[in-house]
Amino acid sequence: MDDTTSAEAVPLRNATLDRLPEDVERPRYDRGALTPGIVHIGVGNFHRAHQAWYLHRLMQEGQAHDWAIVGAGVRAGDAAMRERLKAQDCLSTLIELSPEGTSAEICGSMIDFLPVQDDNAALIAQMSEPAIRIVSLTVTEGGYFFNPATGEFDPSHPDIRHDADHPDTPRTAFGAIVAALARRRQAGHGPFTVQSCDNLRGNGAIVRETVVSLARLSDSGLADWIDTKVSFPNSMVDCIVPATGPDEIAKARALGIEDAAPVTHENFRQWVIEDNFCAGRPDWDRVGATFTDAVHDYEAMKIRILNAGHQVLANAGELLSVPTIADCMGHRLISRFFEKVEREEIVPYVHAVPDMEPQDYAKLIERRFSNPAIRDTTRRVAFDGSSRHTGFVLPILRDALEVGGSVRGLALVEALWARMCAGVREDNSLIEPNDPFWTHLHGVAEAARDNPQIWLEQQQIYGELAGNREFAEPFGIWLQLIWAKGTEAALEAYLKD
Question: Any idea where the Mannitol dehydrogenase N-terminal domain is (predicted)?
Fold first, then answer.
């Protein structure tokens, strides 16, 4: 696609679609004739590049025009996204970045974005409408109110306590879902499917536990009805989608589109879904999604090799001031560290899926991470380590320990995270807070400099692992070596074995 000067960029609106450059794919369907069938909570870049894109492609085939998406949010930041998207008729520019070149298309499957309110009144009202048959979510791995050490729902969280005491004016997405289901039950409208699109193994089971447990705190009869009638399909989602900043907005402008919230993404998508929808669903499989009963195998492969692999790279990259994941893959030590940990300590604990062996998937991930067109920052990937290490890395470590496998590389991954949370890179630049629990993590990381065991005694993260010598001893050795001689010295020591 040829670059276009910024002066020629067309403001993205319904009314300007026919003025966009000819090589920009745009909706071929009548957006004015679409009707809503899905409410999606958490309209970030990933949702727009993934679920919304699959639905858009189905609409391009003349299908699913009664399944349009109504966006929603429950956080302050969602209001800013709403303002940007509403100003452009909820259209999004999706810019595919492949090593071979760049292309763009306009995704039109979202038709509205609800006001973001403290009591979630508009959200509850929309979900109560019988036309809404799916409520989907991307609220991040740490947004499900689970204790990461026990893997159980946390009823003591202040927002959960508020929603239990004030079920008609909830703060959380899950409280709003419970309130809407209560209205539908009372009105005799029947339930909707609740569909998590977050990177969690068993995400359907987790969202079921969250919703049912919250409902039970205020209405046990409603909780039983939800548990029996509502569907919570498990799914695996996959597409690398960097955050949007000035560079991405400029990239859209260079392509001839004035978009306040464009999305860049890699040239790969995967969506594997359990076919468990209580009120119907779009035929996403017509445009590349996979419906299967073996979702857990797919998601285990992806979460362990890709998501845990991201954590292998990101903390080392942050400490060494390596700006992006692709740059990490080009680093002489980080890339070899990644390859060795994947081969020796991750891939052995992953099962094959149809048409894909774990070692082949690992090679695919290496190629995807190495795509120089994807400027996916180490900071973004390192965000919320308290959820991502507990959800992605530590389950592999536990499996390895159970069978007597090596965990030296995974112990080094954890030591690099502990060092990163001290908040200073090795060039003395500051690492800005990058975790919901940063203040706590920062204090523990400072104390662990002299006593590494203090880091492992965070029960909410490590649980019983703190007392496992096969893990705790190499962790302590690595953390002391990183503090004494630096990240590169630790990586070199690991790679010599």
Answer: 37-285
